[in-house]
Amino acid sequence: QVLLQESGGGLVRPGDSLRLSCAASGRTLRNYAVGWFRQAVGKDREFVAAFRSTGTKHYADSVKGRFAISRDNAKNTADLQMNSLLPEDTAVYYCTIGQPILSELRNPQSWYHWGQGTQVTVSS
User: Fold this and answer.
1) What span, in angstroms and rounded, lies between the C-alpha atoms of 50 and 59?
2) How many Å apart are CA 101 and CA 116, to the nearest integer?
3) Which helix H or strand E contains 83, and what residues bound it?
4) In Å, how far are 11, 14, 16, 62, 117 from 50, measured between CA atoms?
5) What is the pLDDT of residues 1-33, one digit of tens each?
6) Any idea what DSSP says for residue 65?
């Protein structure tokens, strides 16, 4: 059984930083791509970042330069460092693993397993 557990969400002010973490059990993360998606109220789930098993990293244009994805194979975890947060970053953030092809990275249906999500709220 695969279990992905996100942590690190919270309420912050614009310009602040947060670090989300995804802990995996039941699968070895280094064998998969790891992704972060988010879903704001009333909107579809959208791609944020991915760290492919090849070692390449990919980001949505809206977070490029502000967010950084990383993974720790020894701990079987993956993190999302979020800097210079904006109110429009407010959403539930989900960790996911899978083996999507490059052209399907941004498609949530191409990913296998999902965590329960962690709320990030950016507000003054």
Assistant:
1) 7
2) 24
3) none
4) 24, 24, 22, 14, 16
5) 889 999 999 999 999 999 999 999 888 888 899
6) T
Q: HSE of 13 in the Cβ direction (CA atoms, 13 Å)?
A: 1
Q: Which two tokens stand for residue 63?
A: 């977070």
d(CA 94, CA 35) in angstroms, rounded, equals 8
- DSSP reduced 3-state for 102: helix
Nearest to 49 by CA among 78, 7, 12, 17: 78
Give backbone dihedrals phi and psi of 50, rounded to 5 degrees, phi first.
-145, 150
Q: Are 3 and 76 in contact (CB under 8 A)?
A: no
Query: pLDDT (tens digit, 9 = 90+) per residue, 63-101?
Result: 999 999 999 989 999 999 999 999 999 999 999 999 999
Tokens of 51: 């760290």
| Residue 81 CA, distance from chain mean position | 9
